Amino acid sequence: MFTSADPDYFIAHVDVTRIKEYREEAAKLTGEPSIALLFRHLSASRLVTIAQIEGRVRGAGSEFVLACDMRFAARESAMFGQPEPGLGVIPGGAGSNTWRASWAAPGRSRSC
Predict the structure, then answer these.
(1) Span 75-107, pLDDT tens digits
(2) Strands 79-81 and 9-11
(3) pTM of the model
(4) Contact at 8 Å (CB) between 112 and 72?
(5) Which of 24, 31, 29, 43 is nearest to 93 (CA)?
């Protein structure tokens, strides 16, 4: 289960000054310097992954929670966003591609 110690943020995005470091870490785990591939490995894992979401989750954070098997969001505080499309940038972790299929497909969305 993935949770955050900060009640205002689950994963707000990435520190853009550390992208090279993130890619190096992803390469150690997946063999490729791709954060998106790391998320695909997470979604294909035999382990059950659960995101308990409180606070803001956007960008790479959204892509991370979409890779989890289950997501539980607090009604009072969870806020989701994918800022890249609004800036004319394609999200690197495929967040805009998987958002609708994962969250809004008929019969998949549930209120807890």
Answers:
(1) 999 988 877 777 777 666 555 555 555 555 444
(2) unpaired
(3) 0.71
(4) yes
(5) 43
